[in-house]
Design brief:
Number of strands: 15
Strand content: 15-25%
Oligomer: single chain
Mean pLDDT: 97
Distance between the termini: 52 Å
Number of helices: 13
Shape: globular
Largest sheet: 7 strands, mixed
Amino acid sequence: MAKNLLALTGNDAGAYAVKQVQPDVAAVFPITPQTELMHKVAEYVADGVIDTELITVESEHSAMSATVGAAAGGARTFTATAANGFALMWEIVYIASSLRLPIVMALINRALSAPINIHGDHSDSMGGRDTGWIQFYSEGAQEVYDNLIQAYRIAEHKDVLLPVMATFDGFIISHTTEIVDTLTDDTVRKFVGEYKPAYSLLDIDHPITVGPLDLYDWYFEHKRSQIEATKHARKVILDVADEFYKLTGRKYGYFDEYRIDDAEAVIVVLGSAAGTTKCVVDKMRKEGKKVGVLKLRVFRPFPAEEIANALKDVPVVGVLDRMVSFGGWGGPVFNELRSAMYNMEKRPEVVNYHYGLGGRDINTEQIEETFNTLLEIAETGEVKERFGYIGLRE
């Protein structure tokens, strides 16, 4: 397939994917660093490039509410937000997944206040990890574009019918220009297909009830149906990724294994820091040090068995969390991964590092120092510090 290379920021790549999918309805409200994405979508609408109904609302709570209403009415929908805006959606985020509505949302990762901060960490999306949404994390603008296109196929699959958030780091990805290999509009629309909702409030010949009172008589069973749908999503994610690979040559899965086959120390990371970590791996490999990186793409549903299998022969694993679980025993990625390894006959040592809060940079020297600490643990078998920080002033 001929390449159509465009110079796009992460926000522009997300908007370009939305333009090509052409959802029926998009609800918009501005918040840094998401605003430019929806500005671009609004521009496409104003210029007549797409026929999406753009709803400008008074808050993020209203944005998700409007999206829920449109999706319940049988529309293919989209919205986007970040940080405090996502927090304001909180009530409706749960409703969206509980009603089994295949909404797609771009969540541009940003630190939550206070103090006020507009830069990227994973406090917002990790705070929403148990809301019933499927979660993707992107390394760069190319993955933003690819993840959003695939998200529609996954969300709308008859065995799933769950909302999907495709996340990417604020400013680091959202405002950085990269070369993105795009598809034609027709190719994308053929890939996602025509949306045929299973149910619609506007189908008067087949009336349904949406959001009724559901007490202890059936609430538990309805939550179980969400659990099963999330399990079904695991297969659908891989099936859609396989189709996308055949179409584009770009291969996706739950995670990306980079030089971990013979590694003595592996860092597990998600988001933009994965690219920097890969550069450090290449440098240290040239020096004869056996290190690797596992970049996690799908956090919900969490691919526990697959990760445990991928890391079963690695002596030491360092898990990087870009948020804090206050009062918890380590960060969310650390806890999920360490739990996944609990029943292994031979468990790796797992060490947790917090980094990059409020958008603080993590550089190659810091990652190399972290790898050297992990290699020392692999050699000595001694873990001096289970929980640490990268780039924190003492």
